[in-house]
Design goal:
This protein is mostly helical. The protein has eight helices and two strands, in the order E-E-H-H-H-H-H-H-H-H.
Length: about 180
């Protein structure tokens, strides 16, 4: 017999005299511990976030306060107890929205770094006078002004001093970043 899932059938009579069967799953102690560990891991992820990132996650004030307390310097045992406390609070609320928000933060960072690399690639290819890149940028970024983009590219290519070339490259990068909504 599999002890991990025990079913208890409860029969109830409703107003209309219809019998309904409701299966209630009795969780083993190990299952409860494993669920609690998962909640603590979500709590650890919350503790590892910056204060700015925490602002983007909707959570109860009590949980936010506990997370901020855990971010303060403390000894190992105190940190462990604080994480247990966070796990206990997480058990009282629905952790799914918080888990999804953490997932979105992780994917959002990935998307930003991908876009950042794409902008760097565009800038480097504009340096090499690739006309297809200009068209690609204009298609990808509808806010782009062709005249301004060609002017910044020309300034970057014609700069003779290394200092001015670096400044022109930075200006082009900033403009690409601005039009791509990074």
């Amino acid at each position: 017999m599999n002890r991990s899932k025990k079913h208890v059938s409860i029969w109830k009579h409703e107003k209309g005299g219809v019998k309904l069967e409701m299966d209630e799953i009795i969780k083993s102690k190990t299952q409860k511990k494993n669920e609690f560990k998962l909640l603590q891991e979500i709590g650890e992820q919350l503790v590892s976030l910056s204060p700015d990132q925490l602002k983007h996650i909707d959570m109860p004030e009590e949980l936010l306060s506990a997370v901020r307390d855990a971010q303060k310097p403390m000894k190992h045992e105190a940190k462990r107890r604080q994480l247990q406390y966070i796990g206990r609070i997480m058990g009282e609320i629905d952790p799914e929205p918080i888990r999804k928000a953490l997932e979105n933060l992780r994917h959002g960072d990935y998307n930003k770094s991908f876009l950042f690399k794409k902008i760097e690639t565009w800038r480097d290819e504009l340096k090499t006078d690739n006309p297809q890149v200009l068209e690609e940028i204009l298609v990808a970024c509808p806010l782009a002004d062709r005249q301004r983009l060609t002017q910044l590219t020309r300034n970057m290519r014609t700069a003779t001093e290394p200092e001015k070339a670096m400044q022109a490259s930075k200006l082009l990068f900033r403009y690409l970043k601005e039009i791509s909504d990074l």
